[in-house]
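Supplementary Note 2. Why include the ligand at all?

Several targets in our set were suspected to adopt different conformations when bound, so apo predictions alone were not considered sufficient. For every target with a known small-molecule partner we therefore ran a joint prediction. The input for flavin-adenine dinucleotide is given below.
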Amino acid sequence: MASTILWFRRNLRLGGNAALQQAIATGQSIVPIYVVDELDSGSASRWWLHHSLASLDADIAELGGQLIIASGDPGKVLPALAHEVDAQAVVSTRRLEPRAALQESQIRRALGADALELADDCLLNPPERIATLTGSAYKIFTPYYRAASAFNEPPLPEATPANVNWFAGPVDSLALADLELLPTSPDWAGGMRDYWEIGENAAHRRIDSMAENISDYALGRDLPAFDHTSGLSPHLHFGEISPAQVWHAIVNSARERGLEDAAEPFIRQLYWRDFSSDLFYHFPTLPESPLRDEFRAFPWTEDPAALQAWQRGQTGFPIVDAGMRQLWHIGWMHNRVRMIVASLLVKHLLIPWQSGANWFLDTLVDADLANNSAGWQWVAGCGTDAAPYFRIFNPIAQGKKFDPDGTYVRRWVPELRELPAQFIHEPWTADEFTKQTSGVRIGKDYPAPVIEHKRGRERALEADQLMRSATTA
Ligand code: FAD
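The joint prediction is reproduced in token form.
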């Protein structure tokens, strides 16, 4: 009996899964497989993937099936499996990384051009759909958003099927543990384990809670001390929930309560996600090369000691250190703080944005090549839609504005816990008595700033000027 292979990629769910629906529509038995490959990199992401696969396997088992797990090049693994289970078709969801496209063409070469069917449900709109009047890609978010959000509502996602005709025959599978996705130091994952629940059901619990609290999003989303954002990014990255599911959950709930305006700032973020993927699709070198050519002449510096201080949350700027330690402990950082820490690295410290992006890719559970690269290029000023380089965040002022009483800093930088709020974002300015009674000796209990803010700002402006003269010379 012929079968169909359901190749799970960044769609690790059963509800609202277009590829699963396509597989069911073939009327053949379904062989569900995940192939761990070179695209599954990043220590925190691999940790998440381990648990996400475990959760998917349990959900498939509830419907009477078993997830096959393999490792290697999908371009080779899937044609071999197709031969073994007599499959005429492989269905999956599309990925935009250039290496993913190579895998897809390898499978088509081996099994026939029509043998691979790809659903397009990782984004609200596939990148080809939204184009300017002249047919080119949008480079600026606002007109992109206007064009993309004018499109029809995303199709209503299908519910989880009640029955699936899984392939009955035996198929070799690796055990999850064989994949060695978990970090070798279990201590490191402790914070992530405590913080996250992983899998499709957990993603739905998060979206339900976001829908309920949508009125707090617009004002609260910039305050890192509170949970006013959804925390859905790793679930969306791995496809434990689709953007269309998120869209419908939020918009329908808001409509029922007359809160459409409150939902808009949140839905807008889903379009930022689409926009980043759109940029990546049209500019595949986004992770490595600046989108603005003049940045090729930027005088970046290599400063391993400063990079390490930044990675370890020891820069002496409390809001930055809080963010970097939050990242290390739970594999996630608040969006506002991502912008502040990234800015310190590329502007005050003049360290190439790619070094910061690589650290994020290794330590974020939501590490996403498109969103991360677009985020870093935006902060560094070299993205198509970026704020100009000469707009330099002041990490002290940012801290005071977005964490006014220092709750966020105290949570992640415990050595500053006793400092009064007026000094929490610039502890070196506290008088000797306050420093003593708060147990903060600068340079001993907590580092002095890695560079003085004013000096960092001047140096960044000089570097910007150097780049401009190099490109106009
Ligand atoms: P919410 O505010 O609840 O937003 C809902 C969803 O919208 C998010 O889950 C996410 O999928 C999407 N979203 C929100 N903001 C953005 C944005 N600015 N760009 C693209 N999509 C967005 N996001 C990642 O998913 N992976 C990354 O690797 C990543 N790296 C980043 C690096 C830098 C330097 C910066 C400035 C931003 C980066 N972001 C990245 C975007 C953003 O910080 C996170 O998506 C957001 O903090 C996730 O938290 P949340 O789910 O609570 O977001």
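The beta strands are 3-8, 29-36, 68-71, 87-93, 116-119. The CA atoms of residues 21 and 399 lie 47 Å apart. Comparable summaries for the other entries are listed in the accompanying table.
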